[in-house]
Amino acid sequence: MRKCMIAMFLLVAGLMVSVFEEANAEEREDAVPVMQAVPFDGEDVDGNPVTLQDYEGTNMLLIFFTTWCEVCQQELPMLSDNYEALQEKGIEVLAVNMAASERKETDIEAFAKGLQMPVVVDRDGRIAKSYGVQGIPTTYAIDEQQQIIKPFYGPLNREQVLQAFE
């Protein structure tokens, strides 16, 4: 019953994502439509609960990845190396592993142990599906009001992350 309620909640939340607001073009030259981040709940690699609401009031990067993705193998360690510096600038990083797309689920924990940032395991793919992830890595810059202010498709670097939150 609980799973059914969660699925219905995610379906409704996913439908809400389709409602866009216009970005203020005067403030941002590269203005993109702003949309609300989709609430989710999941577990980290240690089985601890993680929700989007845990990051309310905080700028964050939400990164979707797999362990076999070559770009992810370079990007996530780079972001992990910069994790503390990003936190000092008020940016949290949360990586979401797309477990349903993994070759071996046993690879997830070993990969996550090498990262400083928390890793959520999306075992059934519902988190990635609710965000419309079609390729990896896909990253969303989410502001303090939990609005997606910038999507990144493919590799990104520290400078791009910082610029997204200026």
Topology:
Blueprint: H1 2-16, E1 35-36, E2 41-44, E3 49-51, E4 59-65, H2 70-81, H3 83-88, E5 91-97, H4 106-113, E6 119-121, H5 126-130, E7 138-142, E8 147-153, H6 158-164
Parallel strand pairs: 4-5, 5-6
Antiparallel strand pairs: 1-8, 2-3, 2-6, 4-7, 7-8
Written account of the structure:
This is TlpA family protein disulfide reductase. Residues 1-25 form the signal peptide. GO terms for molecular function: antioxidant activity; oxidoreductase activity. Keywords: Disulfide bond, Signal. It comes from Salicibibacter halophilus. By secondary structure, this protein is an alpha+beta fold. The chain has a single domain (2-164), classed as Glutaredoxin (3-Layer(aba) Sandwich), CATH 3.40.30.10. It has six helices and eight strands, in the order αββββααβαβαββα. Strands 1-8-7-4-5-6-2-3 form an eight-stranded mixed beta sheet. Strand 2 (41-44) and strand 3 (49-51) form a beta hairpin. It is globular and about 40 Å long. Residues 3-30 have low confidence and may be disordered.
Brief digest:
By secondary structure, the chain is α+β, with helices and mostly antiparallel strands. Helix content is 32%, strand content 23%.
As a percent range, the share of strand residues is 15-25%
* Text of the CATH class: Alpha Beta
Q: What fraction, in percent, of the residue positions are helical?
A: 25-40%
Instruction: Give me the CATH architecture, please.
Output: 3-Layer(aba) Sandwich
Can you tell me the number of structural domains? 1
- Largest β-sheet summary: 8 strands, mixed
Oligomer: single chain
